[in-house]
Each structure stands twice: as C-alpha cells, then as structure tokens.
C-alpha cells in the first residue's frame, strides 16, 4: 500500500478526533444517521448529576441551560463534541470521557442523575445505574433517522461502522465488496454486520475510534487484513 490507508468513517467525527486520525490515515466521512431534535415542553428539576453522551442531546435543552438550568448540577459528558457544546453553553463537565464505558467507571456507585439522550442509545449508562444505587431519570431529546447514503466502498481501504442502525443505513442501497475490511465500534455493531453477511475485521475491546484505527494499521502492517 502506497501512502496512508484511506478509511471511511460512517459518521461525522469531532474536529479533535479527525485531526488525530489524519496523522495516521486519510479520513473520509459519510452521514448515515441524521439527528432530529425533540421539543421539550418543560425541563425536569435538576438532579445531582446531568449526563450527556452526544451534542445532539443538548440542542433542545440549550435554551433552558442558557437561562440557568443545570448551573448547580454536576455534569458528565461523553466525547469531545458533547464537552465542547457544554463549554459553549458555559458549563464545564466534571467528568469527561471518550465513551460511555469509561464514563461509568468514573461515576460514584450512589447518586441521582438526569440523562439527556437520544431514543436510539446503548444501554451502558442505564445498565450501570441499575446495578448500583442510582435514581435515574431519562429525558429523550432527539432521535436519528437513516439517510441511506450512496457509497462506493471501492474508494476506501476500510470502512468503520458505529451502531446497528448505522450499519443498516449505510448498507441499504450499497453492495458490500468481498474482502473489504469492515471495522465495528463494538459487539452489537459487529453482530449487525454479521447479520448482513459481513465478518468484521476488528472489534476493539473499548469503543474508541482511535484504538480501532490503530488496531487496523497494526493488522495491515502484519499482513492480516481479512
């Protein structure tokens, strides 16, 4: 292979993540899921913690936040884009993590929280709080609709998928080339690929896009791309 591998990431990455990845690979992105904001008639009372795992979760809440809602809460954010969105709204997250699993590892075992989230979410936060003494309130502030993009997979050396719905959206109108490396962000995404007849080349132990990209580079360096 001449030059950097060209990888398609099937979502829009944060500027920070993209800049780090571009040091390793040629980065392309495609939008597979388009967020749709859900209106909030009235914000619930602030809990001890407010948890946010996506910047999209803040869109419908930002007017309330700008008026002072949540200023005395402890905030926890997943991802640079959520953290940056909070900072734009004048809030410094007490816990900043790369993924939900890393976030729950840093939370106490007892507390109360409001979880601002999408309708289509992983169960990591809820599973953790259900296993410990947490009082959790969930407020769904957005959902995602598939875009079914047209993609020529042959332009790329590998493709990274981020969720089961992400897989379904991207593969809806596109034929998958045999022997094209597919990379799954986690086990549920890997199973969705298998359900489409695609065996993922990489499923990282931690759902981190930098980690999976590094693992891909290590495998092609060792000559194992299938």
Helix content: 25-40%
Number of helices: 8
The string of secondary-structure elements, in order, is EHEEEHEHEHEHEEHEHH
For the biggest sheet, the summary is: 6 strands, mixed
Structural class: alpha/beta
Counting DSSP E segments of at least 2 residues, the number of strands comes to 10
Lateral arrangement of strands in the main beta sheet? 3-8-7-4-5-6
Whole-number total of structural domains: 2
**CATH architecture annotation name of the largest domain:** 3-Layer(aba) Sandwich
Strand percentage: 15-25%
* Average of per-residue pLDDT values: 93
The top-level CATH class of the largest domain is Alpha Beta
Q: CA-to-CA gap between the ends?
A: 15 Å
Q: Could you say which overall geometry the principal axes of the C-alpha atoms support? A: elongated
Gyration radius, in Å: 19 Å
CATH topology of the largest domain: Rossmann fold
Low-confidence stretches: none
Subunit organisation of the chains: single chain
Keywords: Lyase, Porphyrin biosynthesis
Family: Belongs to the uroporphyrinogen-III synthase family.
Organism: Phaeocystidibacter luteus
Catalytic activity: hydroxymethylbilane = uroporphyrinogen III + H2O
Description of the structure:
Catalyzes cyclization of the linear tetrapyrrole, hydroxymethylbilane, to the macrocyclic uroporphyrinogen III. One of its GO terms (molecular function) is uroporphyrinogen-III synthase activity. Helix 6 links the parallel strand 9 and strand 10 (182-184). The protein has helices at 15-21, 62-66, 80-88, 100-106, 124-131, 164-171, 187-195, 209-221, and strands spanning 6-9, 26-29, 33-37, 49-52, 74-78, 95-97, 110-118, 133-146, 158-161, 182-184. The relative contact order is 0.17. The mean pLDDT is 93. It has 226 residues and is an alpha/beta fold. The chain folds into two domains: 6-32 and 147-221, Rossmann fold (3-Layer(aba) Sandwich), CATH 3.40.50; 36-145, Rossmann fold, CATH 3.40.50. The protein is elongated, with a radius of gyration of 19 Å. The protein has eight helices and ten strands. The chain is 29% helix and 24% strand. The strands form two sheets. A six-stranded mixed sheet has the order 3-8-7-4-5-6, with helices on both faces.
């Amino acid at each position: 292979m001449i030059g950097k591998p060209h990888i398609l990431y099937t979502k829009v990455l944060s500027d920070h993540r993209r800049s780090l990845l571009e040091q390793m690979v040629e980065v392309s992105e495609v939008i597979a899921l388009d967020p749709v904001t859900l209106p909030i008639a009235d914000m619930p009372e602030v809990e001890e913690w407010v948890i946010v795992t996506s910047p999209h979760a803040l869109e419908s809440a930002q007017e309330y936040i700008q008026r002072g809602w949540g200023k005395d809460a402890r905030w926890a954010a997943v991802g640079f884009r959520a953290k940056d969105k909070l900072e734009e709204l004048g809030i410094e997250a007490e816990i900043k993590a790369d993924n939900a699993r890393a976030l729950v590892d840093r939370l106490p075992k007892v507390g109360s929280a409001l979880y601002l989230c999408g309708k289509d979410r992983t169960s990591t936060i809820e599973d953790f709080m259900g296993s410990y003494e947490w009082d959790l309130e969930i407020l769904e502030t957005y959902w995602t609709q598939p875009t079914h993009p047209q993609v020529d997979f042959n332009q790329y050396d590998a493709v990274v998928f981020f969720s089961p719905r992400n897989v379904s959206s991207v593969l809806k109108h596109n034929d998958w080339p045999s022997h094209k490396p597919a990379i799954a962000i986690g086990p549920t995404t890997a199973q969705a690929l298998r359900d489409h007849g695609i065996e993922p080349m990489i499923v990282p132990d931690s759902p981190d896009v930098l980690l999976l990209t590094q693992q891909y580079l290590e495998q092609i360096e060792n000559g194992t791309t299938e």
